[in-house]
Each structure stands twice: as structure tokens, then as C-alpha cells.
């Protein structure tokens, strides 16, 4: 009888050994945005199961979380957010999750903005009711592709803390991703090099990081302040600037009406180009690298047509 038990035990142990790599359950990560989700996937590969909350084609400042988003968080092992005023709604959700580790200050709560050299920092305190006004610094930092180095760095560290056995895999995935990114950045810089310093108008102040990286010059915005629609006097000012500076292109946001960009275009002859600020907002940008492929191509093509 003892012999039989030994055999059963040995089979069970073998079964366990054989099973463990296959049965390893991916870490459940919830991010606020699709851009962060794409970068978590780049680092975590098949060892993570990532979902994001904000809808990529929607204006982030009008986003309202749903009840199902709280359910997603209940089973999350790590949460990753943009921070600043971009996803203020997230802290309410993480509180609802009932898991202190996933809440601000918790060990499984990553606010990526803490590792980014921010632009446009002003000393304004923010509350959820303040909306998307860029008070504490411009939050659109993922739109500088070089910032992906710091973003993936904090993500890899957080994943390795939860799953130390996979830390080498996370770092290897990250380095492979960054090597591809570096080549891509050089390619994007070549594509945009002829347009350095050309004056541009943008709808929302989404692109200061992109502009700095590629030496683009965004001189004004259709929104006089982030989230505020333009007044007639602001439009008059824009038209004057566009004529004085010979602005060839107006950058439109995917989720805004094109009424004002069209009006500016009709009055000045400038082209309107729609850039995409988040992964997944259109089928052509399924991941972080394709987001820049798309935007750089769109911008270079529009600027090329205007023969600046
Ligand atoms: Zn913004």
C-alpha cells in the first residue's frame, strides 16, 4: 500500500513540476490609458494580462468611469496611471476596489508621472472637479517616444517586485523594445527634420513633448486654455497669427469637432491634419510604435504638401 502511495505522490510531484511553467497565471495589470497598456505589454509580454480603462478615442477630460471598471480593479494585481490631471477619476475607482495596495501610496499603485521630467509645471493644486486643465504640468508625456524609457523602467520595476522570478524576462523584453524604439526615433527624426521650426496651430495642448522631441513649433492652440472652447476674439487672434506667421498646418484632435479647424483652414489656406494621441483610437495605431509611425507620417505628409 505504501508503495502505491509513493507512486501516486511521485506522479503528483512530476505533474506539478511539468505543469507549473504552463499553468503560470499572467499578472493582471490595469492601466488608466491604452498607451500605458501597450507599454506594460511591451515589458510583460505573455506574463501579463493588461486592460485599460479610458476609451482611447474619447476626450480624456470628459471620461467617466463605469461600474464595470471597479470590477476590473477588484482582481488587479498592479495598477498604472498617467497621473497629474489626466486621470483624476482613477483614485475614486481604486478606493472602490477595497484593496489598499492598489490605492494612492500603495505598493501596487504606479503613478508614472513621478519619473518623468515634466513640461509646463505650475504650482496649482488639483481636485477631481478641476477637470483636464494641465494645472500641475502637461500630462501628455507619453507622446515623446523617448519618455518610454522611463515609463517602461518604472513598469519593469513594479512587475519584478510582484514576480521576481520573471525579472530577467521583463528587463530583456524592455531592452529589446527600447532597441527597436531607438531605431524608430531616428527614422521619425529623419522624416520630420525638414519641418523643424515650422509654425503650427494645435487644437488642444497635447503635443508639447512630441514638439520638443522633433523640434516642431506649436505657436498657439484653438482652445485658449485646455478644455475651454475658443471665443470669437480668440479665433480672430488665431487668424491673425496664422497669416502673420504663415502657419501651413492645423493639428486637429480626433475627438473634437472639425468646425473650427475647417474655418481656420478656409480663411488661411492651411491644411488640417488629425493626429492620434492614444493607442487604439483608430485601427491603424494598435500599439505604441505604430502611434508614432502614424502621426509622424501624417504630419510629414501634410507639411510636405504645403511645400514649407
Ligand atoms: Zn491635455
Automatic annotation (TrEMBL):
Among SUPFAM superfamilies, the record links this protein to: Helical backbone' metal receptor
Per UniProt, the keywords (alphabetical) are: Signal, Transport
Upper lineage: Bacteria, Bacillati, Cyanobacteriota, Cyanophyceae, Leptolyngbyales
The entry assigns this protein to a family as follows:
Belongs to the bacterial solute-binding protein 9 family.
The name this protein goes by in its record: Zinc ABC transporter, periplasmic-binding protein ZnuA
Biological process terms from the Gene Ontology for this record are: cell adhesion; metal ion transport
Q: Which organism is it from?
A: uncultured Leptolyngbya sp
Is Signal found in the keyword set? yes
A molecular function annotated in GO for this UniProt entry is: metal ion binding
Amino acid at each position: 500500500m505504501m508503495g502505491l502511495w509513493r507512486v501516486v505522490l511521485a506522479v503528483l510531484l512530476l505533474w506539478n513540476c511539468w505543469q507549473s511553467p504552463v499553468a503560470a497565471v499572467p499578472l493582471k495589470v490595469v492601466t488608466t490609458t491604452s498607451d500605458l497598456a501597450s507599454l506594460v505589454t511591451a515589458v510583460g509580454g505573455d506574463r501579463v494580462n493588461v486592460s485599460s480603462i479610458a476609451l482611447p478615442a474619447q476626450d480624456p477630460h470628459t471620461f467617466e468611469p463605469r461600474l464595470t471598471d471597479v470590477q476590473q480593479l477588484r482582481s488587479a494585481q498592479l495598477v498604472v496611471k498617467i497621473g497629474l490631471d489626466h486621470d483624476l477619476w482613477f483614485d475614486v475607482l481604486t478606493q472602490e476596489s477595497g484593496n489598499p495596495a492598489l490605492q494612492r501610496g500603495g505598493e501596487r499603485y504606479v503613478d508614472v508621472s513621478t519619473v518623468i521630467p515634466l513640461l509646463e509645471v505650475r504650482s496649482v493644486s488639483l481636485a477631481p472637479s478641476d477637470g483636464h486643465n494641465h494645472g500641475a504640468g502637461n500630462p501628455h508625456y507619453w507622446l515623446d517616444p523617448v519618455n518610454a524609457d522611463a515609463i517602461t523602467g518604472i513598469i519593469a520595476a513594479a512587475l519584478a517586485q510582484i514576480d521576481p522570478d520573471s525579472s530577467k524576462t521583463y528587463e530583456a523584453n524592455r531592452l529589446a523594445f527600447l532597441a527597436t524604439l531607438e531605431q524608430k526615433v531616428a527614422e521619425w527624426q529623419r522624416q520630420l527634420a525638414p519641418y523643424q521650426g515650422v509654425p503650427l496651430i494645435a487644437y488642444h495642448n497635447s503635443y508639447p513633448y512630441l514638439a520638443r522631441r522633433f523640434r516642431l513649433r506649436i505657436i498657439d492652440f484653438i482652445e485658449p486654455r485646455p478644455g475651454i472652447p475658443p471665443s470669437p476674439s480668440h479665433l480672430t487672434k488665431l487668424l491673425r497669427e496664422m497669416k502673420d506667421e504663415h502657419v501651413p498646418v492645423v493639428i486637429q484632435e480626433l475627438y473634437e469637432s472639425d468646425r473650427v479647424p475647417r474655418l481656420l483652414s478656409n480663411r488661411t489656406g492651411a491644411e488640417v491634419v488629425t493626429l492620434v494621441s492614444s493607442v487604439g483610437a483608430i485601427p491603424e495605431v494598435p500599439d505604441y510604435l505604430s502611434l508614432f509611425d502614424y502621426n509622424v507620417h501624417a504630419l510629414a505628409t501634410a507639411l510636405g504638401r504645403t511645400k514649407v
